[in-house]
Amino acid sequence: MSQAKTPRRRSLLQGAAVAAGAMTAPMIAKAQAGPISMRWQSTWPSKDIFHEYALDFAKKVNDMTGGDLKIEVLPAGAVVPAFGLLDAVSKGTLDGGHGVLGYHYGKQNALALWNSGPAFGMDANMLLSWHKYGGGKELLDKLYASIGANVQSFLYGPMATQPLGWFKKPITKSADFKGLKFRTNGLAIDLFTAMGAAVNALPGGEIVPAMDRGLLDGAEFNNATSDRVLGFPDVSKVCMLQSYHQSAETFEIMFNKPKYDALPAKMKAIIAGAVEAASADMSWKAIDRYSKDYIELQTKDKVKFYKTPDSILADQLKLWDEILAKKSAENPMFKEIVESQKAFAERTVKWDQDTYVSRRMAVAHFFGAKPAAPKKG
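Above: the chain's sequence. Below: its structure in token form.
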């Protein structure tokens, strides 16, 4: 009986071997292909915490894909200048990048509505809510298509309201900006120009050297940690807190679209999850680091912080009305985005203000005069 079954047994073994070969061939091919590697660049100097955020995102993707996708992030200027990121990623010179939409202001000014627009009372997290659930993402896709940008964009990372800036002496009224050589970016260029400043839009790493050489009288960048590590306390001891020029800004993660489209669906899903995980982690890290450096700036660097006078804030809001009206008349897409943001803000900001209890009252109760509030300008 055993001899009679031998041919059948051999046939079964041969069939199994063929099937096994068919199953392992793709696996071998995949192993030979190796991981997908991407070369990215940020728009930030390597010492800035913003570049650290870019590295944090890349690490999340690299870890979550188990090394199947490996993103290397270079600092600003390694391949292209900071303001050249969009073109480099769109053309495939770089596979991706980390920056802010306001740096593409020269391509289409409506892009800056995600980083330096009025935000209509929204904070950055609310702006991200509008982007994901209020139609912002679809509008951004439409905007990029209109300028032929071949990129896949993800917004994340809500930023705190940015200081009015660093100056030689406290700013007490809007007229103090007349003739002032000042650095900002995005739509804030229009705002400070309307206030009378002579604006120069420099990338982060070039601001302090320009102030040191007297090419700038004042400048704003972003936050206590970035400003400290970039050297602002070395060229100024006066920082004005609170402003409407960039009250709600987010970061942008950008892929070259053909490169992104070629990724497996599972990898795209991991990227989407990593974006949101990095967004939460960035906001938590910012609270921890910025608050520490805010103290260090005062105690070690002897910086004096002043609250921007309400009269200046009110003037900014009035100027926003004029800027939005002018640009909406010139640019239909600008108008469409403004109207979308404004409608979302009218509903959500009212809910926000009606819902959240005053933190100032709690701080005054539990800590008294500490931590000290910035001085009035």
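The longest helix spans residues 265-299.
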